[in-house]
């Protein structure tokens, strides 16, 4: 499995579900280990000598963009999308977002999708984008000094990148992109998102992703199936390299899924039949992935006396949104969601009772927080409010983790499930709020402390 020193780089190709995927990837790393830059104009503001300290990079730097700044190649991850839907989605994004480069040109000329593909000024924005990203390589010697001495404009940064990009022929680009595909530790396909998430969990021994809410989905969707045949031909004509790459990606993806399903057979119990494809029984595949994840966590060191989660740490769990900062004290919190159940696994030592305490800093409705139930391995825990009241949405809870739950069922891993009656989106309460996420409760921190002496002691740590 993974070593603590491994570096990861998610090669984010625009409009390939990256906005949805990145929070799921971020959750597996300590917040301090994640490079904050996702664009070149952000990267050049960071001290170059600081880049090797990060363990996770994600952004639009192309496959080879980061290599000159790191002591050894990272583990690569990427997500591809069929060129037809990718091209249409990109056009709609440009039409919708005023900050994109050719937005005003498209609006001023009232360009249809067909017009967009006909114009040389706009067509290049959607021509073989995926090959261009995966074949990108950079000529730069970090020993020559920093890229810029101060923050530069977007045009200046882009000019520097263009000047230092390795020049390749079309054939060389395609071959390099294919090699990068095979070099990726994980490859996903946007059209098979749930299956891609299963493959991600299996590849790295992470918990199953569970229910995922797709973010930044264009209004009305991007249904490429409805395109007229002549428009489809225009898309394919300017994406011949991308089509060849996508076909290679489909073959590679299918092979890796087959490897995953074959490996998961060892976790099947009597009567469970591992399906030949993910789509035939995704629920069973996710159960097997959960056993696979637990198996690989058995060697993890267990907390002997106490455990504190500030939510800055890598998350052993699923069903939580991205990290956010509380305005009052700048502490970290995570919303539960998009479903009504979320879980966290605690690696704690059995043999004695533990006292659990956690803090909720918000809920969009009192009935959501009032409905909160917490179970440990399916056993309901009796929650006591120690801060706040049933009329407030900021509350601290504590409860006892009985010794029999930990000793009999945990095998060194206690699964806490947080369940609420419903989730809401901030936008549903305020149409001006762009946040469409379905959220339940906002968890601020969690603490577990082993009880010594008198059994059942409930003293707050």
Characterise this structure.
The protein has 461 residues and is of the alpha+beta class. It is built from 16 helices and 16 strands. Helices cover 33% and strands 18% of the residues. Mean pLDDT is 90; it is low at 453-461. The chain has helices at 18-26, 40-43, 83-96, 103-108, 113-118, 120-123, 129-135, 154-164, 170-183, 193-204, 229-237, 240-264, 282-297, 366-370, 403-410, 426-429; strands at residues 8-11, 56-59, 75-80, 186-189, 306-309, 317-318, 320-325, 332-336, 341-346, 354-363, 373-376, 379-380, 384-387, 395-401, 414-419, 441-450. It has two domains: 8-259, Rossmann fold (3-Layer(aba) Sandwich), CATH 3.40.50.300; 306-450, Jelly Rolls. A hairpin with a 7-residue loop joins strand 13 and strand 14. Helix 7 crosses helix 9 (170-183), helix 9 (170-183) packs parallel to helix 12 (240-264) and helix 10 runs parallel beside helix 13. Strands 5, 7, 8, 10, 13, 14 and 16 form a seven-stranded antiparallel β-sheet that branches. A five-stranded antiparallel β-sheet has the order 6-9-15-11-12. It has a four-stranded parallel β-sheet with strand order 2-1-3-4, sandwiched between helices.
């Amino acid at each position: 499995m993974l070593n603590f020193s491994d570096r990861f780089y998610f090669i984010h190709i625009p409009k390939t579900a990256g906005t949805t995927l990145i929070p799921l990837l971020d959750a597996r790393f300590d917040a301090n280990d994640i490079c904050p830059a996702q664009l070149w104009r952000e990267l050049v503001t960071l001290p170059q000598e600081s880049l090797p300290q990060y363990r996770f990079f994600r952004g639009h730097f192309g496959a080879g963009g980061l290599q000159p700044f790191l002591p050894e190649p990272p583990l690569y991850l990427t997500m591809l999308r069929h060129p037809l839907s990718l091209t249409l989605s990109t056009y709609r994004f440009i039409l919708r977002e005023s900050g994109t480069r050719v937005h005003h040109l498209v609006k001023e000329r009232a360009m249809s999708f067909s017009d967009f593909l006909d114009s040389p000024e706009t067509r290049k924005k959607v021509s073989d984008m995926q090959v261009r990203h995966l074949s990108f390589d950079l000529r730069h010697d970090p020993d020559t000094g920093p890229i810029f001495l101060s923050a530069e404009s977007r045009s200046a940064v882009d000019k520097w990148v263009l000047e230092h990009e390795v020049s390749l022929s079309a054939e060389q680009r395609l071959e390099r992109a294919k090699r990068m595909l095979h070099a990726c530790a994980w490859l996903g396909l946007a059209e098979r998102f749930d299956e891609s998430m299963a493959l991600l969990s299996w590849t790295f021994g992470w918990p199953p992703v569970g229910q995922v809410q797709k973010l930044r989905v264009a209004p009305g969707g991007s249904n490429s199936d409805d395109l007229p045949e002549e428009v489809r031909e225009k898309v394919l004509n300017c994406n011949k390299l991308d089509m060849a790459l996508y076909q290679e990606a489909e073959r590679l993806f299918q092979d890796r899924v087959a490897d995953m399903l074959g490996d998961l057979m060892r976790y099947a119990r009597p009567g469970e039949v591992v399906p030949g494809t993910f789509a035939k029984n995704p629920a069973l595949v996710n159960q097997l992935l959960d056993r696979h994840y637990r198996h690989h966590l058995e060697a993890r060191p267990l907390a002997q006396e106490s455990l504190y989660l500030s939510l800055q740490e890598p998350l052993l769990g699923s069903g939580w949104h991205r990290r956010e900062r509380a305005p009052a004290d700048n502490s970290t919190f995570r919303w539960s969601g998009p479903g009504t159940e979320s879980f966290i696994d605690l690696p704690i030592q059995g043999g004695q009772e533990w006292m659990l305490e956690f803090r909720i800093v918000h809920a969009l409705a009192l009935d959501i927080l009032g409905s909160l139930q917490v179970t440990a391995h399916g056993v309901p825990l009796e929650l006591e409010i120690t801060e706040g009241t049933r009329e407030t949405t900021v509350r601290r809870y504590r409860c006892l983790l009985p010794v029999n739950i930990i000793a009999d069922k945990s095998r060194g891993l206690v699964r806490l499930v947080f369940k609420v009656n419903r989730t809401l989106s901030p936008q549903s309460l305020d149409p001006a709020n762009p946040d469409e996420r379905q959220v339940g409760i906002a968890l601020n921190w969690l603490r577990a402390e082993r009880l010594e002496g008198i059994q059942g002691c409930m003293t707050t740590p």
